[in-house]
Amino acid sequence: AAEEEEEEEAAAAEEEEEEEEEEEEEEEARPSSRAVAVSLCDSAPCCGGVDDLQAVRSQGLVGALLGSLPRIPRQNLRLGRPLLLLPERGESLQVSLVCCWQDGEGAELRLQVKQHLEDQKRSYEEQSVLALEDRKAALLRAMTSSHTESGDEALQSRLEALDRSFTFPSSALAVQVSTARAGLSYRPEARATLHASRPLRGQEESSCHAARYQVFRDLRGRGFYLTSAGKFGGHFLVYPGDPLRFHAHFIAVCLSLEEPVCLLDLLAVARLGSNVKKTVLLCSPGPEGRVQYTSLQWSGMV
Amino acid sequence: MFTPRPTLTEVSCVKLGNLQVFHLELPLSVQDGYERFLSPSTVSLLQYQVFGHLKRLGFVVHRFDSSCQPSSYERQLNLPRSRDRAGTRLKRKRSDSSEASDRKDEDRTPPETSGVRPAVEGSEGRGGTWWLTDVHGGQSDPSPASGSSHWDFSSILFPDVGSRERQPGRLPSPDPSLLPASLAVGVCDVAPWRRRINLREVKTSPKEQKREEQRRGVNKDREVRRCRNWTEYRALLARRRGRRSGRPAHLWDGDVTPLHDPGQAIPTGELLDKISVIKSTHLLEGASRLKDSGEWRICFNVYQPDSVADFRKSDPGKPYSRVCVCSFGGPVPDLRALKTLALQSGDVSLVFAVVDHGDISFYTFKDFTLPTDVFP
C-alpha cells in the first residue's frame, strides 16, 4: 500500500504522459530503483545522503559535487557532498521525490530537541572518560620519563588527585557536524512517507527545455552517461560509460527540427569539436519521442 | 529569518568544521545550511560556488560594496594615476576633404583623320559634260539645288580607286578637248596603283566608330534616335556628360552616393578610416554617461593569499581582482554592461566567473588595439 501511495504521488508530480511508463517500470522492481531524496537548494536539485548518492550513481546519473571534503577542505580537486543534479536528471524517471523538509512543530520538535540533548549528554560523558584517560597517560609518560626518585607512591597520589579533580569542560566538547540531514538515514521507514511537495520542474517550460529533456531521456535510455557541457559549447557531454573511466565521445547540441540554425554557429561548434577531438552531435527530438541525430565531423575531400 | 550578510561565511565555516549553527535549538547539518541559506535574495548557489572555490584555493574573498568605491570625480582629485592608453587615438582627425569637385569637361579629342573612307561612290558611265554647262543659261542640265554653283557635280567623276566593292580596272582616257593640243593620254590601268595601296580595312575602336557616327550627324546617332522626346534626349546628354567627368549619374544622383570619388587624391590612412565598418572604443570611454541597468553586479573583491600578511580587515587595500558571477545558461554581457561594470570596478581588473553546473571558468575582457599597417 505504501508503494502504491508512493507511485501515485510521484506520478502526480511528473508529467501526465509519463504516468503509464512510470508505473510499469516501478512494477518491474529493479533493486536499484529506489526512492531517492532530492532537495532543492536555491531551486537546483541536490542530494545529501551517501545512500542517495550511491542510488543516483547506480542509475547512471552523474552529478557534480559542490561541497568541501571535511578532511581536506582547502583544495578544489576533490569535492564533497552535496551532489548537484542536472535539472534533466532531477526529472528523470527513476529518481525524484522532492522533499521539502518541514520543521517539526510542537511535540515533534520537543521530542527532537530532547533526543538531541540526550545525545549530547551521552557524548559528553564518553568524551570526559576518554579525556581523563588521556591525561593519565600523559602524566605517566611525564613521570616515568623524568626519572624522579619519588617512585610509585607519588605517582599514585597524583593519579588519584587527578581522578577527583578532573572536570571535562563542556566548551571542549567535540561536536560532530553532520553533512547530511540526520533524519532520513536514521529512520528508513520515513522514506515510505516521503511525498512530493512540489514538482521539480519550474514554471517556465520553454521548448528548448523540453527538447533537452527528451534528448536526455533518449540518450540515457541507450546507456550513455551525460554531463553538462557548457565549457564545450554544447548541452551535454556524452560518455560511453562511467565518466570516471572514459573520455567523452560526443558533444550533444539540442535543436528543434523547425528552427533555422545560423551556418556560422554550426561552423563554430564543428571547429570546437574538432579541436577537442569529440564528435558534435546535433540532436532534434521528433514526434513520438524519437530523436534524430546528426553528427558533424571534420573530413577531407576524399 | 536569517540575515543575508553573514550567510556566506557561516556556511563555509560550517563546512570547515568551525561553526555549529542552531535553528530552533537543533543543530543544522551542512545540507540544511545549503538549503536554507542559499537563495536568490541572499546568496545564490552560483555565488556560493564561486566563493567556495576561491576560498578553498586560499584567496581572501570579501563582498563588493559599490558605495565604498570612490567616484570617478574623487578618483580624479585624489589619485594622480596615469591613464595609459598607449597608441590609441580617441578622435579621428578629419581632413578637409575638398568637396568642390574639379570637374572639367574634357575636350573632345579632335576626330582623328582615319584612313581612306569611301566618300563618294564613284559612278562611272556618266559622260563628261559638266564643263559644257552654260554658265549663263543652263537649260539642258539638271541644275543643282543651290543656284550659285554652276557645276553639275553629279556628272563629275571622282573614281574611288581604292574601293573594294567596285574595282575599277581602268580609268578611261580624258576628253581630248581638255588636254593640251598635242598630248594624247591613253587609258590608265589602275591595277599597279592599287597594289601600292594598303587595302586593308582600318580597325577602329568602338569609341572612334561612335565618334565617326556622331560626326556624321546627330540625327544618325543610334542613341539619339532612341530618344522619343526632349526629356530623354536631355537625360542622354546628362549621362554622356557624367560619364565623361567620371561621376556617373546613377551613382551620384541618388540617395546613396559612393564614399569617395576615385578622382580625388587621399592618403591611405584616411581612406581606411572612411571605409572602416567598426568603430573602436575603450572599456572606460564614455562609460560615465551610461545608465546602469542593474542587471549585472560585481559580487566579490578578491585579495591575493600572499598579501594576507599585510591584509587588514579594517584596511584591505586594493583588491587583486573583482569577480562578477554568472552562468553559461544566462546572457553574455553586452558592451553597455561591460562599460558600466568597468567603471564601477575602477582600476582593478574585472573577472567573470561563469558557472557551469559545478565547473567554474574565469573570463576577463581586456582592451586591445588592432594594428593598422599604414605608412603615412
UniProtKB/TrEMBL annotation, chain A:
One of its GO terms (biological process) is tRNA-type intron splice site recognition and cleavage. SUPFAM superfamilies: tRNA-intron endonuclease catalytic domain-like (SSF53032). The keyword tRNA processing applies. CDD domains: tRNA-intron_lyase_C. It is found in: Nucleus, Nucleolus. Residues 1-34 are annotated as: Disordered. Its EC number is 4.6.1.16. Residues 38-89 form the TSEN34 N-terminal domain. Belongs to the tRNA-intron endonuclease family. PANTHER family: TRNA-SPLICING ENDONUCLEASE SUBUNIT SEN34 (PTHR13070:SF0), TRNA-SPLICING ENDONUCLEASE SUBUNIT SEN34-RELATED (PTHR13070). tRNA splicing endonuclease is a heterotetramer composed of TSEN2, TSEN15, TSEN34/LENG5 and TSEN54. tRNA splicing endonuclease complex also contains proteins of the pre-mRNA 3'-end processing machinery such as CLP1, CPSF1, CPSF4 and CSTF2. This is tRNA-splicing endonuclease subunit Sen34.
UniProtKB/TrEMBL annotation, chain B:
It comes from the Eukaryota. Residues 95-110 have a biased composition (Basic and acidic residues). InterPro entries: tRNA_splic_suSen54. Residues 71-151 are annotated as: Disordered. GO terms for biological process: tRNA-type intron splice site recognition and cleavage. One of its GO terms (cellular component) is tRNA-intron endonuclease complex. Residues 140-151 have a biased composition (Polar residues). This is TSEN54 tRNA splicing endonuclease subunit. It comes from Gasterosteus aculeatus aculeatus.
